[in-house]
Structures are given as structure tokens and as C-alpha cells.
Amino acid sequence: MHSSVDTISIGKKGAETVVRLGGKLLADFSTPPFIGSVPALTELFTKEYLQGSYDGVDIISNEFKSALQQHPRIKTILPLTISAVDTVPAIQESLIEPSKKEVFDALLPHYIENQLRDAILQSEASEHSARMVAMRNATDNALALIDELTLIYNKERQAKITYEIADLVTARLATE
């Protein structure tokens, strides 16, 4: 079992967090579009996992639930767990051609790529949603401020008009 953790960051905040916590930053993909980093990461994770350099691969990302709900998540993508398949009784013995290992090795890059794409897209959706909510809140606050300032302006204008009318009436009464 390996005791060290290699961290690969996608996005500036992830890299900053790893450095701040004193972690080992193996690579940093900070420049959008982040989806462009998927092929390189897929190749790296596949190669290192199959060679035994990595015991596992976890993805820490945001999970998009709705426009108002995004939650951080840690998803283990490697090693694969096939416990559900093992519990299903076999009806008959199946012959797999090519071997299970060859099928696994061929499908692993596709699985990793899809998991990475999912994590990146969910994080980007969460970020866009958070920005949308922040902009909506800023707009609502600006509209409330406009209403408040308009009310103050109208009160001041009305007070000035009332003062001028009173001044004119006083002047008129003084001349009679």
C-alpha cells in the first residue's frame, strides 16, 4: 500500500488549496476549458494504475444537484468494485473472449475518461449555477436599493415643492 498522495488539480482553487495544505501537486490544469485535460489525465491514470504505481484514484469535485444545491463529493473511481456482479448467481458458465484482463484493460480508459468528464461537467455546472444565484442576488439587492433611493428622492423632491409653495403663499400674503 502506498502512503503518499499525488494530487492533480483541475482549476486554480484546487491547486491553491493543495499548496496551502502542504500537499504534493503533481500537475495543475488551471486554464479553461478544463475538459481539454481529460485525455492526458485518462492516459496518466490508466498507465499508472495498471503499472501498480497507484493503489487508487479518487476524484474530489462538486456534485450538481440543482441550481440551488451543489455539494462537494469524493468519488473513488479506482479500484473498481464489482461486488454487485459477484452476488448475481450465474445461470451458466460464460466464456469470455478475450480474457477478463484484456477486456478490463481495454475498457478502463473509457471508464476513467467518462468519470473525469462527469466530474468536470458537474463542477462547471455547479460553478455556473453559483454565479447565476450570486448575480440574481446582486440584481435583487440593486433593485431594492434603487427602490429605496427613489423613495428618498421623491420625499426630498416633495418636501422642496411643499417648501416652495409655502414660500410663495407667504410672499403673496405679505404683499396683500
What does this structure look like?
By secondary structure, this protein is α+β, with helices and mostly antiparallel strands. The protein has a domain at 6-85 and 111-136: Pyruvate Kinase, Chain: A, domain 1 (3-Layer(aba) Sandwich). Helices cover 59% and strands 18% of the residues. It has helices at 12-20, 38-51, 83-87, 100-175; strands at 6-10, 24-29, 57-66, 69-78. The protein has a two-stranded parallel sheet with strand order 1-2. α1 links the parallel β1 (6-10) and β2 (24-29). α2 runs antiparallel to α4. The longest helix is centred in the C-terminal third of the chain and has 76 residues, at 100-175. The radius of gyration is 31 Å and the shape is rod-shaped.
By DSSP (H or I, 4+ residues per run), the number of helices equals 4
| Assigned CATH superfamily of the domain at 6-85 and 111-136 | ATP synthase, F1 complex, gamma subunit
Number of strands: 4
* Shape estimate: rod-shaped
Radius of gyration: 31 Å
From the helix content, strand content and strand pairing, which structural class follows? Answer: alpha+beta
**Residue-averaged pLDDT, rounded?**
86
Instruction: State the low-pLDDT regions, or none.
Output: none
> What series of H and E elements makes up the topology?
EHEHEEHH
Strand content: 15-25%
CATH structural class of the domain at 6-85 and 111-136 = Alpha Beta
The CATH architecture designation of the domain at 6-85 and 111-136 is 3-Layer(aba) Sandwich
**Strand arrangement in the largest pleated sheet:** 1-2
